[in-house]
Structure formats: structure tokens, C-alpha cells
Design brief:
The structure holds three protein chains of three kinds. By secondary structure, chain A is an all-alpha fold. Chain A contains 18 helices and two strands. In chain B, a hairpin with a 2-residue loop joins strand 1 and strand 2. Classes of the chains: A mainly alpha, B mainly alpha, C alpha/beta.
């Protein structure tokens, strides 16, 4: 009983913190209220569904139920959010797909990759190029093509990666990330050069859906909400698969390789195959995130997919919690809202918002958090919460 | 002889060597850190950049050029030592990714703080020697007072480091601490101090490199991002040459500089990044631990 | 088994109830919001915004542009605002142009534009950059937010049928190229001409204008990539300049950003090569260009170069220079170390010029206006009293902006002087004529003094 109340205490603290932060960073009070309600509902739903019994006996169904609840609540919530919040959430959700892929690659299989920004770029550009040449292909199919392209690139990069360790692998992915822009530039008749590409038409919800709701909302709100909905559903599906992958035999094999590759080989796991699989998965997920970004922004630009993005991705998953799935979700939210939080800090401290210090605050805080997290909480926020959850539960047992 | 020396091929060769020694120096500092502490220092460009700002921008208000150079190098030493003690010490024995992420974070912080204090705009650094090329029969040869100074300084630094490792007691201790820390400790070597000295040397070499790069650059002079691009090429050179081998780092650096100069001239400026990537992948496929590495990787 | 089925039913039921609860709560929340009449405009204030490079490599020089406009707005506010409204200008950093580590964590132009839309802003005024502003054209259009005075010489902003709310401000690269061609063919009739441009529409549009009329002898054309430029700290320019030297080009046209101009001039200095330089207005401002070179070169290599400007040269005796100096001096937040003896550089004058243009457009729109009526005013008024050399005129069919300027020579690290004082104008067709302008801007309006 005490364990339960201790856990409720931790959960409660986390929820209260989430609500406070929503009020600080959200675009308007209405958005913050809707967000808080959504968080509470999701938390309640997840808590009821993840009762120990169901999780142990039917883990796949439990994960499906969790994903579905979260997605359904989020879908309902998007209709009450402003267009900006929809956009931010969609951006964060797509980023969390990328993050969960990197979480798997680095956290589960122990391979360092500094090139996930470039993998995102692959999916993003394939999406735009395909849409420009075949405007009638359904969105889902185009997303699938982007994922396939990403998987292919991941395979190509994963092959040399099997032979490389630590710093050399980091170096190769770094070189890929830096050279990606040059690769895009070499094909600038396809990729549109520095200006990038626009999608031919903005994705709009099908008529039957509009008539179902019967409201004449402004064009963008409907479109942004629709794109956000697509993104959220795709995110739910992607996370469902990743959760299963983590828990599956392949996932366990990956973690064994990370911890002790000699033992893994003795057990019969093929090291090269596992390593390449990890790269393929991470790259496919990153491409999916990039393709969704193209969809949400209705355009793609090479200046988005630079090495700085790869660094940002790594930073955000480290802070969120590398090797975990919740870490990817937290990371996505951090990515979407860090600027708002920092602007809030700037306005509270009375700094000149156009001055030197204020414009560098993003970098200082990001970099500082990265260092502090790695030194004191290497498993990130998700790891911290899990640690507190376990120790509280343990301590309260007499 | 004249037409040969001023020809396009020789100009590219000389230009490539001039760029290449810079990449070689960066690669050397990476190797110094790797050999002494087993860490890949992503902030290898940013730490000297910060030291250069302190020495050449802050102290420049009070002192002349050469004293400022000395002060920058000293600041580099201090920064290297402090970083090793504060950031790197706690990370020994932890998974490989931890120090990489910490140094990436440190890189971001250093660049942001430098921009916050001194603004992200360019600062012009004096060029202590003329950069006008020597003329041979009316046509320029790709050498000037400054390039000779550059190549000379690089050679001097490399020689000093080599001499330190090979001929001094300190060098012996440094090599021993890297190779067999436990045994060295038993023999009375202050291993911890050796680790710090490795970082001190590395940042010192880096600061000299940064001053060279910033002084010669007409592009923007000294900015917080001045070493970012050079770091990438230097890193590739170190990986190609082998992180264990200082000689390999320098040879790979100079080689890359020459190849890339020819690529810029005969292909286009966009291709250099692609060529660098190809060089890296191909060489790592053939020799996963670098071309000059003493041992091959353990193939399980 | 029975228990878990009941449990499952309970879970489903609870979730449905919760969803229903959320829906009704949301409905209540939704019904309690009110919309503003004209977004971004209240009785006392008009809010506008822009995405500009406050950090990153383009921030050198370019960050001053929007700040100068902000200084103009603050000055106007201090005199009571325009038609009784004060102007609030929100600047968002999009770190434009930095392909390296330098912008970690900084959001993109699209995110920052979304942030501006949520304020809401009446319009974006003076956002900078071609690829950045291209990426938000459809977003702003679908939100009916005017995108005014984009700081770039691309022709993308002149597309009224597709983007009725999108307006450029400066002369396009293409028009500049044509005026250069006329000057070169008149001054150096049979010279070998070489061209070095940025590898995007800045370079290609400029080149198209240069060769359009077929009057110059173009011997060699090279393009540089910004990423390679930054990564090698300008070393990539060396081989290009060496090529020009061996081609014996006595005239070299540069469509380069200031840093690239620096790299080219430096490379030429090293090679002992001094052709006649003709440099685009984008990368020729003497103060900006000389900055990184100070202490490295015996004398400013840009002296003698010819460039193009649609703003008065620094030694022109227009009352605007004194006015801009006064206005910038009063804005201590944006220009903390500006005094009455600080030299005005091109970026400051550029920003002040479109700042004045906006203020005058706002005044012409009257006390009561909507976005549509404002755009109507903008396309049916000629603004004769801005710092630019010629009046600013938009029509429903032409949103490019200024189309005339004169050629100036760089005379020192801080000053320029007109070549012949003739103001040339042209259009953006490939071989449209270059003619001497007959209409000029006149002084400062009384209400602004």
C-alpha cells in the first residue's frame, strides 16, 4: 500500500510539473488548459490500462492499448488547440520518432551515430521529390517510400559501420552529416538547390471528415489540425512497433551486443547482421520523421538538415533519456518547446531579447544541460524519474 | 624551372600543403588526447578558439601581438588542464558515448559563451607576415612570407612534440601512462598528472593552429565558429591516419589538404566534402583502425 | 478470465466518459474566445514581426538591418506613433546561413514564423534571406498575413498573381547585373570579363542579367558554395581567382556575400592580381568588407571597386544621413555604442530606408485599415520621400520594389562616391533597356523630422 502511495506521489509530482510547464510554454491559456486536460486523461488512461496483470499476460495488447489511448486523446485535443500549438506538437511528435530510432541505435545497440539529421533529410527530400513528380500518390504511400529510402541509406551506411568502433563510427557518421548538404547540392536539379522544394498542394482532410464536423474553420487551422492528426497517428504506430522491437528477441540481442559482444557471439547472434539492422531501423525512423516534417511545413529546405541538427537530435535524446522510449517522447516535447521556455526565462530576467547574451542562451542552456545530464544523470530525465520511482517504492517497503 | 614552379599543378600542391599542415596539426591534437586519455575530444576546435579569444581579443587591449600569442597558448594550457580535471576525470570507465556527448555539449557552450561575450561577428586578427605571394618571373608562386611562417610553425610544433615524446623523461612517462596505466603507477609515474599533461599539450597545439587559421583567414577572421570546418577535416585525417599514430595524423592531414586542393581546382568547391567522405569510408573499410595503426582491430 | 473482461469493460467505459468530458470541457473553452478585428492591430498599437539572422554567419552586418528599422519605429513612436498607433516590432532569430555547429537548438524560419503568427502580427516586415523566406511564402499566404519588404534581391517576391501579399524591396540581382553590363561595356569595351557568383539564385540571376544583352565578353564563370566557403574559411576561392588571373580577365564581377568578397579580395592580394572589381550591393559595403581585413592588408583592396546602390552614397549630402544618425543614436538598446561620429554603414542605411517606407505606407493607409486596404494603398501609392534614390513604387502587377540606383566607387574603408551621378533604371526582362531615371526621391517629410 505504501509503495502504491509513494508511486502516486511521484506520478503526481511529475503531472503537476507537466501542467505548470504547459502553462509557461503554450501559446495561449486555452491551449494550456486543453493540454493539461489531455495530459491528465492520458495519464489516467495509461495508469488504468497498465495494471500489472494485463501487462504481464498480454504485453502487445497492453502496448497497443497505451498507444491508442494516447493517440485518441491527442486527436481530440488537436481540435481545441490553436494552429501554432498543433504545429509545435506535430513537429515534436515527428522529432520523437527520430529520437526513438536513435535511442534504439545508441542506447540499445551501443552504436554512436552523429548523422541522424542527414537520415531525416533523406526522408524529407524523398517525400518532396516524389510528391512533386507524382502528386496523386496517397500520403501514406509516399511516407512508406520515404521510409524505404531511409532504410536503404541506413543499410548502406550500416555495412561499413559493422567494422567500426566508437570514435571511428562517430567520425564516419559525422562526415556523412557534414557531406549531406554537398550531396544535396550535387543533385540540385532534383533537390531545388539552396531554396529547396515546395510540395505541390497542401494536404487537406477528405471531404467526408469535414462534413462530419460541419464547421467552417479557417483553411489553415483545418489543414494544420489534419496534418497534426496524421503525424500523431503515425507517431503512435511507430512507437507501438518500437516498443515491441525493444522487448523482442532482436531487441534483447542488441542490448547483449552493447554490453558484451563476445558473449553475444557465443550465444549465436550475428554481430554484423544485428548492427546493420539497428542502423536500418534508426535510419528508417529518422526518414519517417523527416518526411513528416516536410508534410507539416509543406516544403523542405537543405538548411534544415545540417550537422547542427544531428547535434540537436543527440542532445535532446540524451537529455530525455537515451535507450528508453519515454525518453524519446520527452525529447520530442523538449525540442518543440525549448525556445518558448528560454524566451520565457529571458523575459523574466529582463535581458535585452536582441542582445548578445539572450541570443546565445539557447546554446548555453542546451550545451550546459547536455554536460550536466551526462555527468550526473546519464540516463536522462526518463532515467531519473524511473530511478526515483524505484527508490521511492523500495524505501517505502518496511 | 620558372614555368614549372608557377604552374597550376605546383600551385595546387603548395596550396594543399599549406592547408594540409593545419589539418595535420588538428589531427595531431586529437591523437594526443586519444593516446593519453582514450577520449575523442569534440571540442578540440572550440577550446583553442576560446583561448584565442581570451589572448588575442581580451589581452590585445593591453599587449602587442607576440605577447598575446604567448598568452593565448598559456590560456590554452590552463583551459586544457581544467577541462581534463573537471569534465573528463569523472568519465573514465564509463560507456564510450558519455565523453563524446559531454565534449559536444562543451563545444556548444564554448561557442555560445564566446559569442555572448564577444559577439558572433568577425574579429580581425593581425597577420604578422605579408600574405602576398612571391613572384617568379612575373607570375605568382603559391608561397608567401606567411605560408612559410605557417609551414615552419607547424613543423616546429610537430618536431617539439615528437622530441618531447621520444627524448625526454616526461615523454617516456606519458607513453607509459597511456600504454599501461596500472604498471606505470606501480613504477611511480603520476598517471593522473600525465593525463592532464596530455590535454595541456593538445590544447596548446590547438591554440597555435587556431591563431594560424584566424590570422590567415580573409573570410571572417576570428569568429566562434572559426575552427568548425577545420575540425571536421582534421578529424577525418586523424581517423584515416589512425588515432593511435601521431605520424599517421600528420601524413593524412597533409595528404588530405593536397587532394582537396586539387579537387577544388579541377572539380568544384562543392565536391570537397563529398571527396572527404569517400576518402574516410574507403580508408576505414580497408583499415578500420586507420592506415598507420600499429595493430589491427580485434575481429570477433 | 472473468475479472479481466470486467476490468477491460471498465477501462473502455472510463475512457469513453473521459473523452466525452474532454469534449464538453473543450467546447466550453472554445466558445469563450473572441477574435480581433484586424489581427495585430489595436486602437493604440500595431504589431509586426520579422525573422532575421541575429546569430550565425549571416548575422555579421545583416543583424544591424532590422535593428536600424526598429530604431526608426522607436523614433516614430516617440513622436506619437503613426495615426495614433505605436509600432511594436518583434524580431525572431532564425540563424540564417550557417551550415555548421553554430546554430544548435535555434529553431528554423518556419517555426519562428509560426511563433509570429501566434502573437498575432499584422504583417511580417523586413524578414531576411531568399531560401528562408521562400520556405514560408505559402504559410503566410494561407494565413493571409502580408509578407512585406523581404530583404533579398531575388525575383521570387515579384509574383502577385500567386502571392498577392508578398513584396520585395530592393533592386533585384538581375536588374543590378544589367546595369553592371551597361557600365562595363561602356567603360571597358573589349575587356575579358570573369564572373564569380554564389551557387544559388543570387549568382544565377545576377549572371543572367549580366549576359542578357550580350554586350560583354564573358570569359569565365565560377560558382562557390556557401558551405564549402565556411568549412574551409574561404580557402576555396584561391583556385577560382587563380583561374581568372590566368584567363587574363581585367574585369571581375562578384555576386558574393561580404565574407566571400573578403575571401576573393584576399586571394587576389596573395596572387598579386588586381583587376577592376565590380561587386554586387549585397557584398560590397565598405565597412563590412574591410572589417575582417583590418591589420592583414597594407591597404583596403576594395578601394577602386565599383558597386551599385539604390541608397545615397556615404558622402552624399542628403539630409537623410543626419536624420538616420540622429535616430540610431537615440536607440540605445539596439545600438549601444553608437555616437554622432559613428560611421553609418550600408546595413544601417538599408534598414532605415525600408523602415521609413513602412512607416509612410502605414500613414498613407489611414487610421482605419484592414490587411486588404493596406495592400491596396501600398500598390497605389508612390513613396517619394524615403532615403532611397528613386521613389518606391509598387503596382498590382509588380511587387519587386526599387528598380533604380547609381554606380559608386569605393573610395576608402568607410566611404563611397558616385561614378557619374546618373541614376539608372531597368526592368527584370533579360534584355530590357537600361535608361536614366527621371524621377528622384525628395527630402524628409515634415511629420517625420
Amino acid at each position: 500500500m505504501r509503495a502504491l502511495s509513494a508511486r502516486l506521489g511521484v506520478a503526481g509530482a511529475v503531472l503537476v510539473l507537466a501542467v505548470i510547464i504547459s502553462f509557461i510554454v503554450m501559446a495561449s491559456v486555452r491551449d494550456a488548459v486543453a493540454m493539461s486536460l489531455a495530459i491528465l486523461v492520458v495519464a489516467a488512461g495509461v495508469a488504468t490500462i497498465t495494471t500489472p496483470g494485463l501487462r504481464a499476460t498480454h504485453p502487445v495488447i497492453a502496448r497497443a492499448a497505451m498507444s491508442t489511448t494516447a493517440v485518441v486523446v491527442a486527436l481530440v485535443a488537436t481540435f481545441y488547440f490553436s494552429a501554432t500549438t498543433d504545429y509545435n506538437l506535430a513537429t515534436g511528435a515527428a522529432m520523437s520518432i527520430v529520437l526513438v530510432g536513435l535511442s534504439f541505435l545508441t542506447g540499445a545497440s551501443g552504436q554512436i551515430s552523429l548523422g541522424n539529421g542527414a537520415f531525416m533529410g533523406v526522408g524529407a527530400f524523398i517525400m518532396a521529390i516524389w510528391a512533386n513528380h507524382h502528386a496523386t500518390t496517397p500520403i501514406v504511400v509516399t511516407l512508406g517510400i520515404s521510409v524505404a529510402a531511409g532504410a536503404l541509406v541506413g543499410f548502406l551506411l550500416g555495412l561499413p559501420a559493422t567494422r567500426l568502433r566508437g570514435p571511428y563510427l562517430a567520425g564516419m557518421t559525422l562526415a556523412f552529416a557534414v557531406a549531406f548538404g554537398a550531396i544535396l547540392n550535387s543533385f540540385n536539379s532534383w533537390t531545388g538547390g539552396d531554396g529547396g522544394l515546395q510540395l505541390p498542394n497542401v494536404a487537406a482532410p477528405p471531404h467526408w471528415l469535414i462534413s462530419l464536423f460541419g464547421r467552417s474553420t479557417p483553411l489553415l487551422t483545418t489543414n494544420t489540425a489534419w496534418l497534426t492528426d496524421i503525424t500523431l497517428v503515425v507517431t503512435g504506430v511507430a512507437f507501438f512497433f518500437m516498443a515491441n522491437l525493444f522487448a523482442s528477441r532482436t531487441g534483447r540481442g542488441m542490448r547483449l551486443i552493447r554490453d558484451n559482444d563476445v558473449a553475444a557471439e557465443l550465444v549465436g547472434i550475428s554481430l554484423p547482421r544485428a548492427r546493420v539492422t539497428a542502423f536500418v531501423v534508426a535510419s528508417a525512423y529518422a526518414s519517417l520523421g523527416g518526411a513528416l516534417w516536410t508534410l507539416i511545413n509543406n516544403s523542405v529546405s537543405p538548411s534544415t538538415y545540417t550537422f547542427a541538427l544531428s547535434i540537436t537530435i543527440l542532445s535532446v535524446i540524451v537529455i530525455g533519456g537515451i535507450g528508453t522510449i519515454t525518453g524519446a517522447l520527452i525529447g520530442g516535447l523538449i525540442y518543440a518547446y525549448s525556445t518558448n521556455l528560454i524566451s520565457w526565462i529571458t523575459s523574466q530576467t529582463g535581458l535585452n531579447p536582441q542582445g548578445n547574451l539572450a541570443s546565445q542562451l539557447n546554446g548555453i542552456i542546451f550545451g550546459g544541460l547536455l554536460i550536466l545530464t551526462m555527468l550526473f544523470a546519464p540516463l536522462g530525465i526518463a532515467g531519473l524519474v524511473r530511478h526515483v520511482w524505484r527508490t521511492r517504492a523500495r524505501r517505502s517497503v518496511p | 624551372m620558372d614555368p614549372f614552379l608557377t604552374s597550376r599543378i605546383v600551385s595546387d600542391l603548395l596550396g594543399g600543403v599549406t592547408q594540409g599542415v593545419i589539418y595535420g596539426l588538428v589531427a595531431l591534437s586529437l591523437v594526443l588526447v586519444w593516446r593519453s586519455t582514450g577520449i575523442l575530444n569534440f571540442a578540440q576546435g572550440a577550446m583553442p578558439m576560446f583561448a584565442t579569444y581570451v589572448g588575442m581579443v581580451f589581452f590585445a587591449k593591453f599587449f602587442g601581438y607576440w605577447p598575446c600569442v604567448a598568452l593565448s597558448i598559456l590560456t590554452g594550457f590552463v583551459l586544457g588542464a581544467t577541462t581534463e580535471r573537471v569534465l573528463v576525470r569523472p568519465l573514465y570507465g564509463k560507456p564510450e558515448i558519455n565523453p563524446i556527448v559531454v565534449m559536444v555539449g562543451f563545444l556548444i557552450v564554448l561557442e555560445s559563451v564566446a559569442a555572448a561575450i564577444w559577439s558572433s561577428g568577425p574579429h580581425s586578427l593581425l597577420s604578422p607576415f605579408s600574405q602576398v605571394d612571391f613572384q617568379l618571373g612575373g607570375k605568382p608562386i603559391a608561397l608567401s612570407d606567411f605560408t612559410l611562417y605557417e609551414i615552419g610553425t607547424a613543423l616546429l610544433v610537430m618536431t617539439l612534440v615528437a622530441a618531447l615524446f621520444r627524448f625526454t623523461n616526461l615523454g617516456l612517462q606519458l607513453r607509459a601512462s597511456a600504454l599501461a596505466p596500472e604498471v606505470s603507477r606501480l613504477l611511480g609515474v603520476r598517471v593522473g598528472r600525465m593525463l592532464t599533461i596530455g590535454w595541456i599539450l593538445s590544447t596548446g597545439v590547438g591554440t597555435v593552429t587556431t591563431i594560424l587559421v584566424a590570422s590567415k583567414s580573409f573570410f571572417q577572421g576570428l569568429t566562434p565558429q572559426v575552427m568548425d570546418g577545420v575540425f571536421v577535416f582534421g578529424f577525418i585525417a586523424a581517423a584515416v591516419g589512425g588515432l593511435e599514430s601521431p605520424v599517421g595524423a600528420i601524413v593524412a592531414g597533409v595528404g588530405m589538404g593536397i587532394i582537396l586542393q586539387f579537387v577544388t581546382d579541377y572539380v568544384n568547391s562543392n565536391a570537397i566534402l563529398l571527396v572527404a567522405l569517400v576518402i574516410l569510408v574507403v580508408s576505414l573499410m580497408l583499415r578500420p583502425n586507420g592506415i598507420f595503426s600499429p595493430s589491427t582491430a580485434r575481429r570477433v | 478470465m472473468k475479472l479481466s473482461r470486467t476490468r477491460r469493460l471498465a477501462i473502455t467505459g472510463m475512457s469513453l466518459l473521459l473523452c466525452a468530458g474532454l469534449t464538453s470541457a473543450g467546447g466550453w473553452v472554445a466558445s469563450s474566445s473572441a477574435a480581433t478585428k484586424v489581427p495585430g492591430v489595436t486602437a493604440k498599437q500595431i504589431t509586426i514581426g520579422a525573422t532575421v539572422p541575429l546569430t550565425g554567419i549571416a548575422s555579421q552586418g545583416y543583424s544591424e538591418v532590422a535593428k536600424a528599422a526598429n530604431a526608426v519605429f522607436k523614433y516614430v513612436n516617440s513622436k506619437g506613433g503613426v495615426n495614433g498607433r505605436k509600432i511594436k516590432y518583434i524580431l525572431k532569430d532564425d540563424c540564417y546561413g550557417t551550415p555548421g555547429f553554430g546554430c544548435t537548438g535555434t529553431p528554423s524560419t518556419v517555426s519562428q514564423t509560426h511563433a509570429l503568427l501566434s502573437v498575432p502580427v499584422f504583417a511580417t516586415v523586413g524578414s531576411l534571406g531568399t531560401p528562408t523566406q521562400d520556405s514560408v511564402r505559402s504559410l503566410l499566404k494561407s494565413n493571409h498575413v502580408p509578407q512585406l519588404f523581404v530583404n533579398s534581391g531575388s525575383r521570387d517576391w515579384n509574383n502577385p498573381s500567386v502571392y498577392p501579399g508578398l513584396f520585395g524591396w530592393q533592386t533585384s540581382y538581375n536588374e543590378e547585373g544589367k546595369i553592371f553590363a551597361k557600365y562595363i561595356s561602356a567603360t571597358y569595351p573589349s575587356a575579358n570579363v570573369c564572373f564569380l557568383g554564389q551557387g544559388d539564385d543570387f549568382g544565377s540571376d545576377g549572371l543572367a542579367g549580366l549576359v542578357g544583352a550580350g554586350t560583354i565578353n564573358l570569359t569565365d564563370t565560377q560558382f562557390y558554395s556557401v558551405a564549402a566557403l565556411v568549412t574551409t574559411q574561404g580557402a576555396v576561392m584561391g583556385p577560382y581567382v587563380a583561374k581568372f588571373q590566368s584567363d587574363k580577365c581585367s574585369v571581375v564581377v562578384l555576386d558574393t556575400i561580404p565574407g566571400a568578397t573578403d575571401a576573393v579580395l584576399g586571394a587576389a592580394l596573395q596572387l598579386g592580381y588586381s583587376p577592376h572589381w565590380v561587386i554586387s550591393s549585397v557584398g560590397s559595403d565598405p565597412v563590412t568588407v574591410f572589417g575582417p581585413l583590418a591589420g592583414k592588408v597594407p591597404s583596403d583592396p576594395e578601394v577602386g571597386a565599383v558597386t551599385f546602390t539604390y541608397l545615397p552614397s556615404s558622402d552624399a549630402s542628403t539630409p537623410w544621413h543626419a536624420w538616420i544618425t540622429k535616430v540610431l543614436g537615440k536607440d540605445k538598446a539596439d545600438f549601444p555604442s553608437f555616437t554622432s561620429t559613428t560611421v553609418l554603414d550600408g546595413n544601417m542605411v538599408y534598414g532605415a530606408a525600408w523602415g521609413v517606407a513602412f512607416v509612410e505606407a502605414l500613414k498613407a493607409a489611414g487610421r482605419h485599415f484592414t490587411r486588404a486596404s493596406f495592400l491596396h494603398t501600398l500598390t497605389h501609392t508612390t513613396f517619394r520621400q524615403t532615403p532611397s534614390l528613386t521613389p518606391l513604387r509598387y503596382t498590382p502587377g509588380n511587387h519587386q520594389g526599387l528598380n533604380a540606383g547609381y554606380l559608386v566607387t569605393v573610395t576608402s574603408a568607410t566611404a563611397t562616391h558616385p561614378v557619374d551621378g546618373k541614376i539608372w533604371m531597368t526592368d527584370s526582362t533579360p534584355n530590357g533597356p537600361v535608361t536614366a531615371a527621371t524621377k528622384f526621391s525628395t527630402g524628409i517629410p515634415t511629420w517625420l523630422k
